[in-house]
Design brief:
Length: 175
C-alpha cells in the first residue's frame, strides 16, 4: 500500500508517536524544540494536517467533550508508514539549505561589498540562533532521543556554517 505523506505530516506523526496530543500541544513542542527554524509547519495548519492524517487512517482522534480539545494519536498504520518514510529519508540525500545555496549561486551579481555585508548579517543572525539553540538544548532534559539528535545536529551544522562564514568574510575583507 502506497500512502503519500508530506514532510509536515511526517513531522506531526512523529510527535504523535511520542504520545497523544492536541494541536496546541504540538505547536508548543515545535516551538520548544526549535523546529520552526527548519520546518514550514505553521500553527494555523496543524489541525488541517491532523484532519488529513485522520482521513488517511494514520491518526485518530478522541471526540472532544465540552470545551476540551480534540486529542490525536497515531494509528498502527500511521506508525508503520512513519517508520518506512523515516528510514527512506534517513538514507536518501536531499538538498539542504536550498535558499542559501541559490543565493550563493547568484551572488556573483553583487559587489564584494554587498556580499560582505550580507554574509556579516547572516553571521550575526546565526550567532544568535546558535545561542538560542544551546539554551533550548540545555533546558531539554527529558527529551526523546530524536529531539536530542536534532539539537546536536543543529548545533554542529550552525557551527560549521559559522566557521565557513568567518573564512569567507576574511577573504572578502582582504580583497
Amino acid at each position: 500500500m502506497v500512502i503519500k505523506t508530506s514532510l509536515t505530516e511526517e513531522l506531526i506523526l512523529g510527535i504523535l508517536a511520542e504520545q497523544p496530543h492536541h494541536g496546541y500541544q504540538i505547536e508548543k513542542l515545535i516551538v520548544d524544540r526549535g523546529m520552526r527554524k527548519w520546518t514550514d509547519v505553521g500553527f494555523s495548519s496543524i489541525y488541517y494536517v491532523l484532519e488529513k492524517l485522520e482521513k488517511k487512517g494514520l491518526a485518530k482522534s478522541v471526540p472532544a467533550k465540552g470545551k476540551d480539545k480534540k486529542e490525536y494519536s497515531i494509528t498502527k498504520l500511521g506508525l508503520t508508514i512513519l517508520i518506512e518514510k523515516t528510514r527512506q529519508r534517513l538514507v536518501e540525500r536531499q538538498p539542504a539549505n536550498s535558499h542559501f545555496m541559490t543565493a550563493l549561486a547568484n551572488s556573483q551579481n553583487m559587489s564584494s561589498k554587498e556580499l560582505l555585508q550580507a554574509l556579516m548579517e547572516r553571521k550575526y543572525i546565526l550567532e544568535k540562533d546558535l545561542q538560542v539553540l544551546k539554551n533550548q538544548q540545555a533546558g531539554g532534559h527529558c527529551l526523546p532521543r530524536s529531539a536530542k539528535q536534532l539539537f546536536s545536529l543543529g548545533l554542529t551544522m550552525l557551527q560549521a556554517e559559522l566557521n565557513w562564514l568567518e573564512s569567507e568574510i576574511q577573504t572578502l575583507q582582504l580583497q
